[in-house]
Automatic annotation (TrEMBL):
The lineage of its organism: Eukaryota, Metazoa, Spiralia, Lophotrochozoa, Mollusca. This is C-type lectin domain-containing protein. Pfam families: Lectin_C. Keywords: Disulfide bond. It comes from the Eukaryota.
Amino acid sequence: MFNKIIFYFKISTTFLRKYTIISDQLVQWEEARVICNANHHGLASISNENEQQALEESVAASGVASDLWIGGFRLIADPTWKWARTGGNISWTRWAPLQPDGNGLCMQLTYSYLWDDDSCIDFKPFICNV
């Protein structure tokens, strides 16, 4: 079974968000998406600065010091980035400088907590919405 680190945090006074960081399984992006969809509520999606900050704090507290898959993706013929969980376009972003650079079709949260496009076939730990 997976090693899960679960974090709860408040985004506002009425909304509580929860993520699970799967740190002991290194998988490709599609497998991470399947696992998160089957056991949680999809790969992590981040829609504003508060969610980004809370996720950064959660990852830092977990002790995981590597890049992690999150739920952003794009199709080869479409430059628009979307969230896998909803299929909706990504409107708020936290890309690393000079990113996305066309290096990949899947999104990772880097060890410095910025977003980067990467090859979907790389193996990484991942973050699920719960």
